Amino acid sequence: MVRTALVTGATSGIGAATVRALAGAGWQVVATGRRAERLDALTRELPEGQVHTAVFDVTDARARDVAIDALPEAFRGIDLLVNNAGLALGTAPAQEAKPGDWETMIATNVSALVAITRRLLPRLVERRGGIVNLSSVAASYPYTGGNVYGATKAFVRQFSLGLRSDLAGTGVRVTSIEPGMVETEFTTVRTGGDKAASNKLYAGADPMTAQDIAATILWVASLPPHLNINALELMPVSQSFAGFQVARD
After folding, report:
1. What pTM was estimated for this model as a whole?
2. What residues make up the domain containing 82?
3. In the chain, where do the E strands start and end?
């Protein structure tokens, strides 16, 4: 039986790499995102008929529901939900942060993730499927300027564990993937398009790649159905835990 995955935020980075990895392993994939031209380009890379694109912003409830309702019959049986869509905005400390940035992160990383998960849960239960939620090491290790971003990822981690509890006996597997430094568009988006800041962050660090995380997601999805990875934290070897801060006069 051909399995079907739905991947949010598939227009770049980890999301696009996950679509490629799953499709390469024989999965059908529903690739979602806001940028139609990027989804179209991704589809052209892969065998015809293997990927269905759905263009919508995950924070737009109506567009999200319309796209899910409009899935072709061959793609309606979702076996795997990969909640990848998310972002960080701003690096300022809390007292200087923009409230609008906070609201956008909560709407995208928390509210939209919860809504699409709830919408697809009956299908996932019916097919004894799986959910992979993209959290972050920021869920566990706070850092200056991480404030709401880290809090949203801590929510994702705890929500994943809560789903595991509620879904006991259904056969549905749930995993929280918690990466550290991955070189994608993440920092460029976070800094409002400052490519130089992104280059500086990753320079000489040998960070993880989107392909590294996609391969991990594929591994989790390919495990025997009796085995669940609850949470998986990954870092490049060059990255370690930050030290405690001490403010001095």
Report:
1. 0.96
2. 4-182+211-234
3. 4-7, 28-33, 51-55, 80-83, 130-134, 173-179, 182-183, 208-209, 231-234
